[in-house]
Structures are given as C-alpha cells and as structure tokens.
C-alpha cells in the first residue's frame, strides 16, 4: 500500500514537472517574442 502510494506520487511528480517545463518554455517564447517586437519598434522609431 505504501509502496504503491510512493510510485503514484513519483509518477505525478514527473507529469507535473513536464507540464511545468512546458509552461516555462511557452512563457520564455512569449517573452522572447515580446522583446523582439519591442526591439524592432524601438529601432524603427530611431530610424524614422
């Protein structure tokens, strides 16, 4: 019973970690995209 619970918790942790990693990856992509847009508009205004 105890061992089964430990196994279940380990599996849950692995899934949660994967989901967490995916969320971080998405957020990083969004931040990077926003920074690129900000840099682009900044340079665009500088040139104009």
Automatic annotation (TrEMBL):
This is Uncharacterized protein. It comes from Glaciecola nitratireducens (strain JCM 12485 / KCTC 12276 / FR1064).
């Amino acid at each position: 019973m105890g061992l089964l619970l430990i196994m279940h918790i380990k599996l849950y942790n692995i899934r949660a970690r994967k989901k967490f990693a995916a969320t971080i990856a998405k957020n990083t992509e969004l931040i990077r995209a926003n920074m690129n847009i900000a840099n682009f508009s900044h340079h665009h205004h500088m040139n104009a």
